[in-house]
Amino acid sequence: MMFSWLWVVFTVIAAFAQTVRNAMQRELTGSLGTVGATQVRFLFGFPFTLAFILILLWTTGAPLPHPGLKFWPWVIDGAFTQIAATALMLATMGERSFVITIAYIKTEPIQVAVFGLIFLGDVVTLPMMVAIVVATTGVIVMSIKPGGAIGGMRPTLLGLASGGMFALSAIGYRGGILSLGLPNFVMAATFTLVVGLAMQAVVLSIYLVLRAPAVLQAIMRAWKPSLFAGFTGALASQFWFLAFALTSAANVRTLALIEVLFAQLIARFAFGQRTTPREAIGMLLVIAGVVLLILVY
Fold first, then answer.
1. What share of the chain is helix, strand, coil (3-state, %, to 5)?
2. Does the first or last residue of the chain, that is N or C, have fewer Cβ atoms within 10 Å of its Cβ?
3. What span, in angstroms and rounded, lies between the C-alpha atoms of 246 and 263?
4. Residue 105: half-sphere exposure toward Cβ, Cα within 13 Å
5. How far, in Å, CA of 32 to CA of 50, rounded?
6. Phi, psi of 184, rounded to the nearest 5 degrees
7. pLDDT in tens, 160-170
């Protein structure tokens, strides 16, 4: 397949754009709260995804897909397990062992491999699984600080559950893309993204109107920085979905671990933070796992 290696390029672009978006969301969390900053990703990202699909329609002349019934369960799963994953991740912020639980969340690639095999039949070979485990171990080594308190079963379960929900979300979106059966993978990915993001924006907007209208008003007042966060979020999602259209979610989410390398570079050059020997070892493991994955693909 002539596009088979494009998933690597798409995933790297997505990981970088997501790193930038995360930095913007951290800035917005102080004024909007965690739910408000999360909604920015969906509400302000949606217009950009609409622009993406309009440009695609105009440049290619391809018609809009007509999804069958099997498309909708996949996309509903992708959209709402992603919201659930985010909620579970935010719940870990109240735990003493937040860093530890983040390490558990990063077991997502392993869980994606299992769910992908069960629900989509995406086969993971032994060398690919070794690559996934090596890269995931690298992230965990970077995340867990020596002497850090684990804090009991609750944070462990929260972290694993969040990683599992993120994994199911990736599987749902890939399933939705494949269910369209389109020869144009760009249209399949973009259409699925538009539908999923619309669902998320509407549901969270209704939630905020009913439970926290002041937060929704604050989001509107912060529209300038929110636009950039929305754009980078939409750009990241666009390339995640393009990658999902071309290869298994396990491959994409494993290569996506290079996001932690981008975050380290930003911390180093933008904020002057030094890399510890433990973090350096973790980075080397991530790089080794990613290189192995690409070589055995």
1. 80, 0, 20
2. N
3. 26
4. 25
5. 25
6. -90, 95
7. 888 899 999 99
CA–CA dist 210, 87 (Å, integer): 18
Tokens of residue 98, six digits: 């937040």
Amino acid identity at 93: M
**Which of 3-7, 179-183, 212-216 is most confident?**
179-183
Q: Is 282 helix (H, G, I), strand (E, B) or coil?
A: helix
- Give how far Cα 204 sits from Cα of 42, 78, 212, Å: 8, 15, 10
Average confidence score pLDDT of the chain: 85
| Model pLDDT, residue 32 | 79
Is a pLDDT exceeding 80 seen at residue 238? yes
E strands present in the chain? none
> d(Cα 213, Cα 51) in Å, to the nearest integer?
28
H-run or E-run covering 287: helix 277-296
Instruction: Give pLDDT, residue 3.
Output: 61
Contacts of residues 174-177 at CB distance under 8 Å and 24 or more positions apart, as own/partner, are 174/116, 174/120, 174/244, 174/245, 174/248, 174/249, 175/74, 175/77, 175/78, 175/119, 175/120, 176/71, 176/74, 176/75, 176/78, 177/241, 177/244, 177/245
Q: How far apart are CA 112 and CA 289, in angstroms?
A: 16
Q: Distances in Å between the alpha carbon of 241 and those of 159, 173, 176, 275?
A: 24, 8, 10, 32
